Amino acid sequence: MIPRYSRPEMAALWTDQARYDLWTRVEVLATEAQARLGRVPEDALAEIRRTPAPTAARVAEHERERDHEILAFLAAFCEPMPADAARWVHLGMTSYDLVDTALGHTLARAGDLVLTAAKRLRRVLVDSAVEHWDTVCVGRTHGVHAEPTTFGHKLAGHAFAVDRSLRRLRAARNAVAVGTISGAVGTYALIDPEVEEHVCGALGLGVEHVPSQVVARDRHAELACAVAVLAACVEQLALELRLLQRTEVREVEEQRTGAYQGSSAMPHKRNPTTSERLTGLARLVRGYAGPVLEDVALWHERDLSHSSVERVALADCLIAGHYQVTAATELVETLTVFPDRMAAAVEATGGLVYSSVVLARLLAEGMDREKAYRLVQRAADRGGDFRTALAEEGVDPGTLSPDLFLTRHSVLRYRLEALRGLED
Known about the structure:
Blueprint (H helix, E strand, L loop, with lengths): L7 H4 L4 H21 L5 H9 L5 H11 L2 H10 L4 H4 L8 H37 L4 E6 L2 E7 H26 L1 E2 L13 H10 L3 E2 L10 H27 L7 E2 L19 H22 L10 H29 L2 E2 L1 H8 L8 H10 L4 H13 L4 H7 L17 H11 L4
Parallel strand pairs: 3-4
Antiparallel strand pairs: 1-2, 5-6
Helix pairs in contact: 2-3, 2-7, 2-9, 4-5, 7-8, 7-10, 7-12, 7-17, 8-10, 8-17, 10-11, 10-12, 11-12, 14-15, 15-16
InterPro entries: AdenyloSucc_lyase_C (IPR019468), Fumarase/histidase_N (IPR024083), Fumarate_lyase_CS (IPR020557), Fumarate_lyase_fam (IPR000362), Fumarate_lyase_N (IPR022761), L-Aspartase-like (IPR008948), Pur_lyase (IPR004769)
Protein name: Adenylosuccinate lyase
EC number: 4.3.2.2
């Protein structure tokens, strides 16, 4: 992912050097376990432990000679060791014991970063929803005025969407946090399962129950899909805020810095650029889920069709998804809300938003439903002030205000407060 849409803490997990550092750790842990089993001399283990991870540049030099990244890494790692130590590196292992175990650790750490970011977004949405719980605004269906609601109610819906995504993300994070040190085609023919237990235990990973030489790719697909659903939830929030920032609506506005310039030609423009960026990133993240799903099906015990996809899709999906969530949090935290504009919008149609209340009153008074509906609709179609039109139809409109729609609003507030009590 390009730096523009990356946060440093997430991007750092996916560098070539980070990968080789982690591969080195896996090789050292595996050698430790082999030494405990009496299969590697202690002096060789000491040499392997003190050998630093090879640089990405040096691995690249070896790869030009071998056309195989794992063999290039092993050559670069073993290069400074005495031959009597180097021969014990990677004992009984196959390439994807190294790759997939390290990848499981990286995906778990990346998942933790996304989880932390999503928890913060949930908290910010809950706090903003509570702050604006009584900020009355018009609800819209099909983009058309419907009935009064509150801005806090809107934000609460998004908070619960993020909360549901958190549950999916937790499950997916745990699903990818596995490794395997089982040798060619996963039979443990040349390596003791105790080596796997030691390596995975030290890395905080579970083990693939029945490895096929690789970790099952449905695990990775689960994570990519969970991140994609979270991105879609953020997109829903961003779309709402974009629509509320239109000139004729202008009920909210993104924070503007002194350096802000909205258009190269029109100095007056105040565009919802952050919300638009969040929408675009959701499309990108969703796009990565498809190729990762296609990686699930591999030939027999394994093939390499997934490798090229994963090098791009897993990293970029997580980096872009993480950036999107953190940017959404900053947007909500600094959002300017215009309660007066919201209140004015409720009355902008001359009281039409109260049509359902009038209909309910007529029904309660015993009027036939079809007759009552047609009467209220006829008054609404007159144009002008709805209360006046009702009076001309012989209907006493009574008191019409947003409070009529919010008498039971508190039950939603109780549900929202439950989210506040969740651990961040």
